[in-house]
Amino acid sequence: MDVSLVPADTTEDVRGRAAGVARQVAVLPVGSFEQHGPYLPLATDTLVACAVARRIAAAYPVHLLPPVTIGCSHEHAAWPGTVSISAVTLHAVVRDIAESLRRSGVDALVVVNGHGGNYVLGNVVQESSARGERMALFPAVEDWETARERAGVATSLLTDMHAGEIETSVLLHTHPEFVRPGYEAADVISDDRRHLLSLGMSAYTDSGVVGRPSLGSAEKGKEILASLTDSFGAYFSLLTSADIPVQGGERG
Fold this sequence. Notes:
- The chain is of the alpha/beta class and 252 residues long.
- Helix content is 40%, strand content 8%.
- Its cofactor is Zn(2+).
């Protein structure tokens, strides 16, 4: 399965655009390699993050980076095939990428996160912003909610936790060849997951699914991606503005 992204930019493209435009933005998809029930692939979160990032790059003048394909999936460790890195490692990878981009004149980074368990990405962005660096995490919960409503997704974000209506819909639209039969009858509702961090996913689902994949459709997936692409506009405007407020009251 090829989940790589090959940016069209050459070295000269990046150098020229960075010199000619005040603020350059790079987009980094971050996913995971973890179980997604018996019908979605281990690379689902990476595929979703890449689908969002590709559409952003088609609509906005950004530099598209290849994805980080393994994230923090420790809550899925009960299922074979799941591979994780530590939060410390993921934090360092994203920080190092941002620093390397700045050396090329690309001073803003948007992390497109496809896996809810990559909690540390929020810390990376907060710490970077506090230092006066330009970084954002996308999509926010509000962006997902807007996309859910626009696409007619019936399942709430609470219920649609893993391999549910949203992820199934996006893959039915972008990679239907990777969706196996069985999602039509795989619904699992488990809204009270207060001990998830202590017990992991296996305490709440036997199949690895939490949500209603039976409601997924390619048309919903198409509308979800269209909505997220529109929502990205506010992030792009913020990161490319001449003067951006940062934590602590400094501006840069």
